[in-house]
Amino acid sequence: MSNGNSSFSKKFSSGAMITLLLVVMAPQLGLSVITPSFARMASDLNVNVAQLQWTTTIYMAGYALSMFVGGFLAEKYDAVKLQAFGLIVFSIGSILCAFSGSIFPLSAGRFLQALGGTSATVLCRLIIRRRIDPAFRIAPLANLTMVISLTPALAPLLGGVASLFFPWRAIFVVLAVLGITLSLLCLGFLGSAKADEPSLPSLASTLSSIGASLSNLSYLWYSAALALVWMSYFGFLALSPGFFETNYGITGISYGVLMLWPAVGYWFGSYLIKHTANPTKFAHTSIMVSGLVALAVLLVGLVAPLLPAWVVIAILCTQFIGVGATIPYSQNGQLALPLPLPGVSTGLFFFIQMMSGAVYAAVANSFEATSFRSVLAFVAAPQLVLCLAFVAISLIGGGGKFRVPTRK
Fold it and tell me: Which part of the chain is the Major facilitator superfamily (MFS) profile domain (predicted)?
């Protein structure tokens, strides 16, 4: 749990916190910065945009695998050094993408990008777990969530501007340079974040940790909450290029500007939960309210004609406030659970999140969901399910074994 000694800190140094915030941007930059160039990439690689959207799903599959592998290896190796190595792998994947002549090496490069760079999602939180006093973790976790929420908005915008001046291959080269730079910053500013008793878990102990996690009802609740809101948000990210091009003819920098606003809702939810006196109560309220908004989104998709793009974005911006609040709430709750092999349990936690998003996006892409009705349905459904699950547990949990966790 610690960084090699028995004491925790209340906060990171400014340099360490800034480094963590920069590093945790890598997964979302890798995911979204290239999206505005999809039309040009499709032309160069002789494929269509719908086929390129599958590379986003492949990226998420690598993202999911990285969560579990990163958490597993962190039981023995320093989380900071693992993160630095992962960013080098991210750079190698970016170079492979830059020199791809077809969609197949591009897909392999995207997978490598995710496998290396996205380890930040679990490793940065393990660094917080091992370095920061439990009573003070919600602030750095919320900071990470706010940066993560803004990056998917800023990345398409930056990518859209870059696409006006540079070929898409140059964008991947910039990502490679960024990965190397962030790796050096990790080694220079983050110090050490070792497990108390570093050792690579045996198969038996790994399976035991997985079993203990999956039999813990609070762990299951936090995992489900995180997975469902991520399915909603990532489902929108994955479907948005085809949706806006097909229905509104929006691509490039215009797409990047439009995608800024849903992430503002995500960011605002994270900001609110960071500054509220009772984060758990706020998260539960946001789950309820966002579920009602999701129901409204679903009904609008079913009965309304095609709405202007800005109206769709405004509605989803409101819905995603719940995403921004639920993510740090669920992460903070999971980190506080007294489970064996915390690296394994944390890696599994984020694996469930990312694999849920990847599978959900794959299902949506298999239906070629680009219509107004289908996209809104895919985006709304997970948060509506979460709201209904919360209501059901709250109503019947009092007489059973489990209540929704209410720890501050």
Answer: 16-400
